[in-house]
Amino acid sequence: MRFVIGFVRQTWAGFSVLLALTAVLGVLYPAAVWGVSRLASGSAEGSPVTDAAGCVVGSRWIGVDPQVPDGAADPYFHNRVVGSAADEDAFAPGDPAAAAPTNLGPSSETLAAFIDARRARIAERDGVSPDLVPVDAVTGSGSSIDPHISPEYAAIQVDRVARENGMTDERVAALVAEHTDGRTLGFLGQERVNVLELNVALGLRAPDCTTGG
């Protein structure tokens, strides 16, 4: 009889612990994480960026270079290299889904040749001396989809963007300043410009209207 009573008590104790842990870890904890993700962070749903019509243009965390056909007007700011950093064609708009860093080191002559070619093309595009093209303009990030560029890279594009949009350099420079994020916590990292959000402010529109409802 004692054995039966002890077995029942132990079984009930174990079942009670199971119910308690299920409630805490299976319900309360996931609900708390879900709530924090919605209240304390804007990235839980991918941080979509919408244009003036409410259409999703992209994510503020994924850098996609604006696609400009050869010979067409080029009214937007360009991102960093998207795609393999060792790909000579990575200067052109890339597919973020196929992005991959390079395994070529700083002593690679192949990588150096690609960087020199990109520097010359960017300098020609923006009408500046190759010496003024910053390093982030000709190299990709570790993920190859960095959404930010340096203020220096944005600065050399201001004149072209202003001219193609019929705006003053001062107005475009002000937009760049509005979309420049400072160092994290005031001392971590560097100042950076979110290219997608800046281009949306210039009038970039989604090719296909897919609202982010």
Calculate the terminal CA-CA distance, rounded to whole Å: 63 Å
- Give the C-alpha Rg: 25 Å
Strand and helix order: HEEHHEHHEEH
Strand order of the largest sheet: 3-5-4
Category by helix and strand content = mainly alpha
Q: Please report the number of helical segments.
A: 6
- Structurally, how many domains make up the residues? 2
Could you give a short account of the major beta sheet? 3 strands, antiparallel
Helix content: 40-55%
Share of residues in strands? 5-15%
In total, the number of strands is 5
Q: Uncertain regions: pLDDT < 50 for 5+ in a row?
A: none
* Shape descriptor: elongated
Average pLDDT score: 81
Family: Belongs to the KdpC family.
Organism: Antrihabitans stalagmiti
Main location: membrane
InterPro entries: KdpC
Q: What would you note in describing this structure?
A:
This protein is mainly α. The chain folds into two domains: 1-41; 48-201, no CATH class. Helix content is 43%, strand content 7%. The protein contains six helices and five strands, in the order H-E-E-H-H-E-H-H-E-E-H. The strands form two sheets. The protein has a three-stranded antiparallel beta sheet. The protein has a two-stranded antiparallel sheet with strand order 1-2. Helix 4 (151-165) packs across helix 5. The system is composed of three essential subunits: KdpA, KdpB and KdpC. Keywords: ATP-binding, Cell membrane, Ion transport, Membrane, Nucleotide-binding, Potassium, Potassium transport, Transmembrane, Transmembrane helix, Transport. This is Potassium-transporting ATPase KdpC subunit. It is a single-pass membrane protein.
